[in-house]
């Protein structure tokens, strides 16, 4: 998945596991940027009585780099605290929850948002309430209204939300990790099966979202709102992290784990699927602990991706040009590690300098598209991935086509992509709740009562 259970150790710590990061110019407020980071993957909505929640012992952060160094020039830090209203019941709620302040909600969460910039730490908001999870039709009868109560204006044009949402990422994991198969192309696989539509592996699952909408002027290097996409100050880098204390012990008196010592990063995420399919398994956990500015050590995996060699092997005769291409993938290095410099795509750039770093690169001078194309830049829509990442961008298809060679001509005009490079996909789409047209844009989470568990087969 984009970053759901992407490394062995973080898969054992889902509360700190980042799943997706998004950064885009807000379509309904184009003088702002929306920053979104999702955590806690694969949440079954009916997981009571201990429903999913943010970790009180985790520091969640969204980082912005605007200096061309891939270092954190601005950090938005979210820390949470959980309250138990009635310690005599096992229930999450003791009646209907029609307001996020209702006493019937027994385990409310609150959070503090802190900004770290230029060595200065400033609290932007504190004790903001999260919404409850979507328990079901009786417990949370008007979930949309509850969720809206958790959208908080916090001054200076900023708006924030933290709570459960539907996972908008989509991918056919059941097929992709079954020897690299793509169901729409099953009949061309080394081990052929009948072609069929893709199956979204995250259908019916929720995530926990932190989302922040910020005026563009507060994010750029010179505190301006650039209007020229070729202006180097128009590009920002974005990634998310989660950190824990260096030591974590169970306190029997308190009945919970407590952290001790300095904070240590345990998860990070910039470009979707970077750690998932580019970094080798033996290095994934260490990658999660490192800052982006040291990513030059992973450049060899970007310029010689394992999947590039697997595609011609798994689909014999389908990718002959890709199989014969022996040059390092300079196109992928630009897309994932430096951004695209001026001159590669006419009228566009999202170059952040020579420092090789995995982060989303958003050109804030590119206005939102009236009719977004889910394939983003490769389809001519410069407002989409890899120019930042919108919620609706089909990043699996985009990255599959890039690895299959579709983007090689950007840097090597002598190369002719295989015909399949512009058609390859996993065949999925967002089958969870539809996206919203306003902040926080992600769809409402699936409800526990409404959930119908699926079926599986052993053969």
What does this structure look like?
- This is DUF4331 domain-containing protein.
- The protein is an alpha+beta fold and 459 residues long.
- It has one domain.
- The chain has helices at 143-149, 173-176, 274-277, 281-289, 299-303, 306-314, 320-324, 330-338, 395-406, and strands at 18-25, 32-43, 59-65, 74-82, 109-117, 120-129, 152-155, 158-166, 206-215, 235-251, 256-269, 360-363.
- A hairpin with an 8-residue loop joins strand 3 (59-65) and strand 4 (74-82).
- The radius of gyration is 22 Å and the shape is globular.
- The two termini are 24 Å apart.
- The model has no long low-confidence stretch (mean pLDDT 94).
What keyword list fits this structure?
459 residues; alpha+beta; seven-stranded antiparallel sheet; five-stranded antiparallel sheet; 12 strands; 14% helix; DUF4331; DUF4331 domain-containing protein
Number of domains: 1
Biggest β-sheet: count, sense, barrel?
Answer: 7 strands, antiparallel
- Kindly report the oligomeric state of this protein: single chain
Q: What proportion strand? A: 15-25%
Number of helices: 9
Q: Give the class from helix and strand content and strand pairing.
A: alpha+beta
- Unreliable stretches: none
- Helix proportion range: 10-25%
Could you spell the SSE succession in H and E letters? EEEEEEHEEHEEEHHHHHHEH
